[in-house]
Each structure stands twice: as C-alpha cells, then as structure tokens.
Task: inverse folding
C-alpha cells in the first residue's frame, strides 16, 4: 500500500524516471539545429497543416464579413471561427520554441473558455434574448433538462425544471464565470511558472484542481442551455448545434490531452529524452496532436457550415437561408 502511495506521489510531483543528464529545456536555436528525423517530419507536417488551417480561417473570415449582417452575431461568429487558427498557431510556435509550450497552452485554454461564453451569446442572439426564449419554450411545453454532461453520469436521476428567465440568467452566469476564473488562474500560473519554472509544477496542479469546478460548472451550464433550446425548430436552419458540438468536442480533446501526455511522460513512456526532457518531449507531441485536431476541425466546419447550408450567413444568396433571413430579428444579446 505504501509503495502504491509513493508511486502516485511521484507521478504527481515528479517522475518514475531516474534521469541523470541535464533536464533543462534548450533554446529554440539549439533545438532546431539538432533535430532528429521524427522531429523534422513532425514540424514539416505541422507547418503545412497549420498554414492550411490559417488559409481556411481567412476564407471563413471573408465569408463571415461579407454574408453575416448583424454586428453582434458577426462578432460572435468571428471569434468562434478563429478558435482553430489561434490554437493551431500557438501549438506550432511551441513546437519551434519548446520553452513557451506552457504559455501557448494557457492562452489557448483561455481562448476556449471565452468561446464557451460566446457560443451561448450566439444562441441568445439567434433566439432573440432570454424572454423570447422562455416564451418559445413555454409554447412547446419544454422544460430545462439538467441531466447533461459532465454531471449526468454522476447524478443520473436529476429532474427537469420549469423554464424561467431567472434560471436562464443563472445558467448564463455559470458559463460567464468560467473565463473570469480562468483569467485569474492564467495570470497566477504564469507568475508561478516564470518565477519557479519546473519547481512550480505541483503548485500548478493544485491551482488547476482548484479552478476545475469553475470549468465544469461552465460546461454544465452550457450543455443545459443548448440541450434545452435544441428542441426549437428555428435553430435548425442555423446549424447551431453543429457549431456547439464542434467547439465542445474540440475543447474536450484539447483539455484531456494535456494531463494524459503529462501522465505518460512521468510514467516513463518517452524515456529521459535526448534533445528535450521527458515532459517537454511529451508536450511537443501534444502540440503536434493539437495542430492535427485544429486542421480537422477547420475542414469539418468548412464542410458542415458553408454559407449555403447555414442561416447564420443571412446575406448569402441561397434559397435555404432567404426565408430565415427575411424574418424580423432583434440584436439582443445574453
């Protein structure tokens, strides 16, 4: 029992490896001039995929600028469309400059947390505000479904609730607090990391654990709102559920792979490392996976959310969106 506890502590605070060589992270100049074949292939592939993601992002931005009429809606869609290019770019930079992987991860995570709130703002704009949403849900006799991820598996018998404006405000606040708490956690994490470097990893894990409830509550509030409102037929032409699911799954992969790569590096899967220490080797390949994910998200969103298929692009000359675009809309936000 003591051996198991000791192993767990070593995995959380150190490593199962007993590496004797220097574990400092090399500069980008040294790193790039001593690359082995796997690193070279990974960087070349990542560069091509990231540039493709940026090119697709530029196309998305041009379509949003031209074909989305409402300024608030355009701003929300702009931000969400920039998620894959932003995350991919920082991941690629961290592959070229291993010392900044932590900064790249924190900024990308913060971008995602704001995206959670903006995807709800977009929802509220489409349904014309809280009161309009409550009225439409009452007309359909719908109720708030609180048995959603991430707590549905822990509490399988949660009841449904009456849809009320007050409850909608509470759910919006649950989502809004996530980027606020994340901003504070990001600033503290950067202070700890730049002051103590690798000696701050245990404190950073504690900080992540403390801020985890904020993230879970934000995701929970987001899922409740989207699951409840997804029953409205008027959301179908906008393909809003596709937008939400893409962001949701993308965020899930991004959030889970960090602790997974951290764990397997401490368990010794990457060895002691040759060019990079074990942890930094793991995070190099984690960033490579992030670039791949960002590319696939960009390609999928290009196929599923093109202007001819989504009423978000209300100015696009398409039969499928004209009828929706002609309906009266109000620029009410969350």
Result:
């Amino acid at each position: 029992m003591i051996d198991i506890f000791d192993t767990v502590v070593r995995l959380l605070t150190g490593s199962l490896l007993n590496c004797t060589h220097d574990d400092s992270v090399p500069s980008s100049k040294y790193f790039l001039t001593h690359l082995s074949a796997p690193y070279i292939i990974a960087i070349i592939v990542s560069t091509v995929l990231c540039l493709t993601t940026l090119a697709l992002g530029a196309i998305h931005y041009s379509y949003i600028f031209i074909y989305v009429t409402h300024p608030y809606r355009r701003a929300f869609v702009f931000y969400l469309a920039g998620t894959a290019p932003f995350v991919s770019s920082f991941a690629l930079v961290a592959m070229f400059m291993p010392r900044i992987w932590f900064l790249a991860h924190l900024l990308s995570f913060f971008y995602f947390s704001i995206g959670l709130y903006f995807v709800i703002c977009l929802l509220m704009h489409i349904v014309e505000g809280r009161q309009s949403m409550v009225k439409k849900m009452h007309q359909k006799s719908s109720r708030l479904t609180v048995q959603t991820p991430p707590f549905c598996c822990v509490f399988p018998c949660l009841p449904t609730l009456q849809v009320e404006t007050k409850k909608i405000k509470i759910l919006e606040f649950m989502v809004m607090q996530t980027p606020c708490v994340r901003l504070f956690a990001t600033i503290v994490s950067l202070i700890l990391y730049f002051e103590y470097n690798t000696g701050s990893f245990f404190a950073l894990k504690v900080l992540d654990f403390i801020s985890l409830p904020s993230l879970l509550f934000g995701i929970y509030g987001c899922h409740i709102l989207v699951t409840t409102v997804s029953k409205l037929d008027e959301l179908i032409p906008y393909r809003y559920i596709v937008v939400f699911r893409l962001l949701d799954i993308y965020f899930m992969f991004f959030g889970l792979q960090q602790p997974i790569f951290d764990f397997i590096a401490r368990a010794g899967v990457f060895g002691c490392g040759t060019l990079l220490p074990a942890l930094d080797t793991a995070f190099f390949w984690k960033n490579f996976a992030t670039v791949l994910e960002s590319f696939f998200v960009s390609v999928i969103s290009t196929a599923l959310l093109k202007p001819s298929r989504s009423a978000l692009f209300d100015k696009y000359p398409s039969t499928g969106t004209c009828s929706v675009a002609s309906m009266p809309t109000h620029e009410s936000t969350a």
User: Anything to note?
Assistant: Residues 37-325 form a domain with the Rhopdopsin 7-helix transmembrane proteins fold (CATH 1.20.1070). Confidence is low (pLDDT under 50) at residues 319-334.
